[in-house]
Design a protein that fits this description.
Length: 330
């Protein structure tokens, strides 16, 4: 190749690169041009749905396009996850999921997606405490009595959860291990339906996120025994921690995070990341989450790198726990 040909080739390559960069820049400036669908892999009315709708409202204001929450429940959140993994990587389908994203690889022998590699991480969203609650007329007065009563009546007690892989399932699994009692579990297609049956007295107790229980606890519609954090929750000041109330070391928080499909274009991912950064700093988001016993993550955790590192570490941790427990969904 002559020197003139080399120069022409170099100029052509530079022009192509600049055109691509200009195209990406224009795309970033134009995006979003229509509403965005935020998939929540659980039924409406549950705790993850509640968190998603709060963040969707704030992100809508930032992006100047509506972020619409769509509930795609079933199979412990894996149906919704699979739908997002198969969706077009254009930024118009995003995904808000909780800790179940890290437990699915161990719980399900056959997943149609890779939980760590088939999504574009956008950032962590919130850490939500769990609460141990029971039907309003449950006999036990405090957590110590609850543990004793459950151990003595384990064949008669029913424990509700939102399905295999849900936060309530994981909390229940840890609880049964801690108190050495296998209980009859009643799985639902989401925490909302499970809470409805707890309110109606059809099931005895459950472990659920504060975003779903705080209002019911304050209204006196269910009996609360403990919160699963190291320190008491400000919105439930009279509720002791599980460690202080009789279950030393029993702590679990449910983290939530935002993702896009794999290979999301960087300009689009950056725009969504900026919207998430706006949301975790938004006073409206902070107030609404505070009312529900939680708060958004620090901005440093609401980043792609932080989520990617955290998710991979959580997958390793929960794989070890679940395999040791011998619990599988299929």
């Amino acid at each position: 190749m002559s020197s003139n040909q080399q120069r022409r080739f170099a100029l052509l390559a530079t022009a192509v690169t600049l055109t691509g960069l200009m195209g990406q820049s224009a795309w970033a400036q134009a995006y979003p041009e229509k509403p965005i669908t935020m998939i929540v892999p659980f039924a409406a009315g549950g705790p993850t749905d509640t968190v998603a709708r709060i963040f969707a409202q704030s992100m809508t204001g930032f992006l100047k396009q509506q972020v619409i929450v769509e509930n795609v429940g079933g199979a412990g959140g894996t149906l919704g996850a699979a739908r997002v993994a198969r969706s077009e990587a254009n930024g118009y389908t995003i995904f808000l999921h909780h800790i179940g994203q890290s437990t699915a690889p161990a719980l399900y022998r056959k997943l149609s997606y890779n939980a760590a590699d088939d999504f574009t991480p956008i950032g962590l969203v919130a850490d939500v405490p769990m609460t141990l609650v029971a039907r309003k007329d449950f006999p036990a007065k405090d957590l110590k009595e609850l543990v004793s009563y459950v151990q003595a009546n384990k064949d008669k007690i029913t424990y509700a959860n939102a399905g295999v892989g849900s936060a309530s399932h994981l909390c229940g699994m840890l609880l049964m291990s801690a108190i050495k009692a296998d209980l009859t579990t009643v799985p639902y297609k989401g925490t909302g339906p499970a809470m409805n049956d707890l309110l109606g007295g059809q099931v005895d107790f459950m472990c659920d996120q504060t975003t779903n229980t705080t209002g019911q606890i304050k209204a006196g519609k269910i009996k609360a025994y403990a919160v699963t954090t190291k320190a008491p929750v400000a919105s439930l000041p009279n509720l002791p921690t599980a460690s202080a109330a009789g279950l030393p070391g029993f702590e679990i928080a449910v983290w939530h995070a935002l993702y896009g499909p794999k290979n999301l274009p960087k300009p689009v991912a950056d725009k969504l990341q900026a919207a998430l950064q706006h949301a975790v700093k938004d006073p409206m988001v902070k107030q609404k989450l505070a009312d529900l016993g939680t708060e958004p993550v620090a901005p440093a955790r609401a980043t792609p790198a932080a989520l990617d590192q955290f998710l991979r570490a959580e997958i390793v941790k929960w794989t070890r726990i679940i395999k040791a427990a011998g619990v599988y969904a299929d």
